[in-house]
Amino acid sequence: MKLWKTASRFLPLSFLTLFLTGCLGEENLTALDPKGPQAQWIYDNMILSIIVMALVSIVVFAIFFIILAKYRRKPGDDEIPKQVHGNTALEITWTVIPIILLVILAVPTITGTFMFADKDPDPEVGDNTVYIKVTGHQFWWQFDYENEGFTAGQDVYIPVGEKVIFELHAQDVLHSFWVPALGGKIDTVPGITNHMWLEADEPGVFKGKCAELCGPSHALMDFKLIALERDEYDAWVEGMSAEVEEPTETLANQGRQVFEENSCIGCHAVGGTGTAAGPAFTNFGEREVIAGYLENNDENLEAWIRDPQSLKQGNVMPAYPDMSEEDMEALIAYLRSLKVME
Amino acid sequence: MATQKQEKSVIWDWLTTVDHKKIAIMYLIAGTLFFVKAGVMALFMRIQLMYPEMNFLSGQTFNEFITMHGTIMLFLAATPLLFAFMNYVIPLQIGARDVAFPFVNALGFWIFFFGGLLLSLSWFFGGGPDAGWTAYVPLSSRDYGGLGIDFYVLGLQVSGIGTLISAINFLVTIVNMRAPGMTMMRLPLFVWTSFISSTLILFAFTPLAAGLALLMLDRLFEAQYFIPSMGGNVVLWQHIFWIFGHPEVYILVLPAFGIISEVIPAFSRKRLFGYTAMVFATMIIAFLGFMVWAHHMFTVGMGPVANSIFAVATMTIAVPTGIKIFNWLFTMWGGKITFNTAMLFASSFVPTFVLGGVTGVMLAMAPVDYLYHDTYFVVAHFHYIIVGGIVLSLFAGLFYWYPKMFGHMLNETLGKLFFWVFYIGFHLTFFVQHLLGLMGMPRRVYTYLGDQGLDAFNFISTIGTFFMSAGVILLVINVIYSAFKGERVTVADPWDARTLEWATPTPVPEYNFAQTPQVRSLDPLFYEKIHGDGTMKPAEPVTDIHMPNGSILPFIMSIGLFFAGFGLIMLNMDNPIINPWIVAIGGLALTFGCMFVRSIKEDHGYHIPAEQVKADLAELKKGGN
Ligand code: HEM
Ligand SMILES: [Cu+2]
User: Fold this and answer.
1) Which DSSP string do the residues of B18-49 spell out, in sequence order?
2) Covalent lipidation (N-palmitoyl cysteine) residues (chain A)?
């Protein structure tokens, strides 16, 4: 009874149990619902470490609550408790047991570190292993498929069930490339080339984030990783590598002129490899979001073109506040027509 | 040589004081002001994150707030608050009349203070630094970082000098000024941990000073140490920073351990369990603290060999830390525990710190850290260490030493209320952040989109912050209330404590001990209570006591350094009103001029005559002290 009374004072702590109730967050963002072998490995070892650490914590908490319950000084009790110096046997025990626990964690730590650093091609697909060069910019992502000869901006496509190798670069400041549901993150560092690999078990859209402070709009530096079955992926690659055709619609055709006259094209390539100044637009019409985070509708698109700074503080795109309504309409129609998949 | 101090105005007295007890109180006040400032910033940041896509702070302002919050909390709040206790308590606990170099002690305070002021001035010159408290290049380089970073670089450079010379002072004091019989293995644990922490400052603040100097050269004079396009190396900064930055955590947490190791025995009425093991565990923690800096950099691409080595090295720190945890628990075990406010904070520290520690081991698993790194999981981890460890023990120390420092108690009812509100708020704020991190929330983000599963926990976290703020307000009310209505303390030893500071009368006379005490054991006061008459045996007859004179020079020298730093910052301003070099060189000239004056001016201090000391003693006897 007494014990319970004491314990109940610590009731706030019992929301520890929240941890076990499965509030997992959004599918395809959270790392608590892994969707690839690397993420699964991380998840399993995280659980292993939580179990070990929970054991340690439970021992400490148990001793602590016993103390709370048993060793309170009663009013008027002036007795001086026995003054103990220490206890060598006990002290050796709580030195040796943690060492054993740490060894249990150290072994997967080392094997995992080497496994993740492996940048050899996928043995299953050999020469067809997908290599993607990632470049972090303030505040967007560029994906160069160098072997295939084209560039994608903001959305990166990979085939399902294959180890995909990423080569990481940074254009300006540090960024960090992270797709939580698929695995860990590695920084993109100016002047240094890093590598990592990821694999997706199933098709889907996985959210990616920049994890290293990179300026005022760091929070908005999101991207999408889209995993497709191999044949769909091949179709996408083909579409991205194809010559860009004239838009068939007149409005869109007009829009293309606007795009060229306002030198949008100076920063945003359509087809082929992009310049480094802005995201490539080859498949813009298929994007779910603008600028990494805004829903891709006409209203947002117009707002973005007229004043990108107010939507993403500190980015380098110039504003076009005075573009006429007709031009804007045509431009949007043109951007909508940029698709590579049927 | 004068025999009597002249009367001075109160302000002049504080500006010129070299008394360690007054300097301690100045550290306490300055540290508290900075703590509140950084706390308000935290509150604002949490309000911004209460709902998705809030528009309370802009991305730029938010980044300035994280930078200033982190920098201020570590350098200008936690450090000076610990220094406050170290300054007050160390000389008393070792039976000394003052620190080894009272003048340097005052200098250390004023340099720290003006350095902090310089940093804070950034708000008036176009915004605070915005590259995080770690100031990673290139974001903090000339090309990407604004003027605020110059304030960061020079403000920290100046205040770091203050911290460094104070640490040297503590080292010399502890080595040289101990009372007869106070051997190293009888030092109270707070003195031990302060000693080791000061050693860490010596070895960690020097690389920081070097790093800041290099960054300053890059920013002001277009050197290229950290600019990759010019052959510099970005990662170099991270190594230099963390060689300082990792030990910095131990610099703060070791004295916090020391406070806990004082408060728990006092209120359990037991000696510290495993004293020797505690001392050596502290040393091992400090040593390992220097070996593991690169665990902050698992994701920069150091390669698997380096990552494995640093991962395993990091894990080993858990062993000595575990020893400490169990020794604290077994100090309480079998004791007769009084749960007043100080003890509530000290005892609740133990399980809370364990929660922060176990996530530390989790983070040390490098490949799993690829997930945790730079997410809210890390934010949760280090706030469990910093708030759950350092801040809880600061509060424990405050309630414990307050009667000695200010001559009255803090109100216990308000104190306990404060404890519960703050403690609940703390867990509410930071526990859910572990989950936010795993659910994909990076740290240092000023906003997040709705419907990503992050909304609920962010909301809970912000509510927790309101509780913590309410707690701190309760503390402020307590301090004000107790100043007027609090129970006066004139007895030497209101807690029935064990160490030497409680052998001095309250209020503590300027000379601390009328006669240097003879120390016969660990926990000397307790020993005398059991084996003697409960008072310390004097180790010397009553004689004239030699005291140092106050001096305004430390204050002026610090102003000199302030202007030296400000002048250099002006080099990067668009339209400085006067030539920056005049300000910079003028400031340095002021400082060096003062040093020259100090060197040639003869100042032998003054004596308190033996008769007066005797009179004081007689007065105390009458008061039944
Ligand atoms: C009153 C309770 C506190 C609250 C609510 C709080 C809140 C926050 C928040 C919201 C952040 C930004 C997190 C991010 O990186 O996205 C932060 C960062 C930080 N806090 Fe606290 N904090 C508190 C107390 C402290 C204390 C007492 C210290 C140190 C003594 C501290 C040290 C830091 C540091 C070093 C950072 C990292 C700053 C950076 O990223 O550059 N905090 N805190
Ligand atoms: Cu970024």
Assistant:
1) --HHHHHHHHHHHHHHHHHHHHHHHHHHHHHT
2) 23
In a domain, A15, yes or no: no
Residue from the list B131, B332, B428 with its beta carbon closest to the beta carbon of A67: B332
Contact state of B234 with A190 under an 8 Å Cβ cutoff: yes
A49 lies in which domain range?
A: 27-58+87-239
What are the beta bridge partners of residue A210? Answer: A177
Backbone angles phi, psi at B9, to 5 degrees: -70, 160
CA of A136 to the centre of ligand 2 (A): 7
Is A79 part of a structural domain of the chain? no
**Ligand 1 centroid distance, CA of B80 (Å):** 17
Of A239, A264, A294, which marks where a domain is finished?
A239
- Specify the CATH architecture of the domain B8-550+602-621: Up-down Bundle (1.20)
If asked whether residues A124 and A228 sit together in one domain, one would say yes
Pocket test for ligand 1, best of B66, B140, B250, B433 (most atoms within 8 A of CB): B66
Mean pLDDT by 10 residues, chain B (625 residues): 59 94 97 96 97 92 96 96 97 95 96 96 90 94 92 96 96 96 96 97 96 96 90 94 95 97 96 94 95 95 94 95 95 94 96 95 96 97 96 97 96 97 97 95 95 93 97 97 92 92 93 94 92 90 93 96 96 90 96 95 90 90 64
Q: What is the DSSP letter of B5?
A: P
Q: Say how far apart CA B576 and CA B565 lie, in whole Å.
A: 14
CATH of the domain at A105: 2.60.40.420
Q: Which residue shows structure tokens 């963390």?
A: B242
Total of domains in chain A: 2
The string of DSSP letters for B501-570 reads: GGGS-SSPPTTS-SSPEEP-SSSHHHHHHHHSSSSPEESS----EEEPPP-SHHHHHHHHHHHHHHHHHH
Instruction: Name the token pair of B320.
Output: 């000595």
Same domain, A150 and A176: yes
ipTM: 0.91
Q: Are residues A208 and A261 in the same domain?
A: no
B176 close to A (CB below 8 A): no
Domain termination site, one of A204, A239, A274: A239
* Domain-embedded: residue A81: no
**pTM for this model (two decimals):** 0.92
Q: How far is B623 from chain A (nearest CA, A)?
A: 25
